[in-house]
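So, could you explain the following?
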Amino acid sequence: MISVEQDTIYRNVDTFCERIVESARDKGAEIVRDNLHFCLHGAASRWWTFEVPDVDKRTIKRDHSEILDEWTERLKLRFRPRMATTVRENSELSFTVVDVKAGVSIKRRAWVL
């Protein structure tokens, strides 16, 4: 999650979907559903605009579930990292003596990763 001025940019689809569910419960699913596509930026905006077929968009926009299952499940399907990618990235994580000597904070390193 990154904050830019007043905006929050989510880099993790699960966190973003949790926020969608919270907002739907707090503000009402209909309001969130009807405005969610305006919250998409970058790759997510391109996905919504160019990749999602019109028939799927209509289905998503007609989702009357309290937690917007159509939105959250499709976002997770598209943006959740593949297991092989996740395993590879986790196996490459390291914090070494070189990092300590360079003054790298383990807290900051963990946040960046």
Observations:
- Residues 2-80 form one domain.
- The first strand starts at residue 2 and ends at 4.
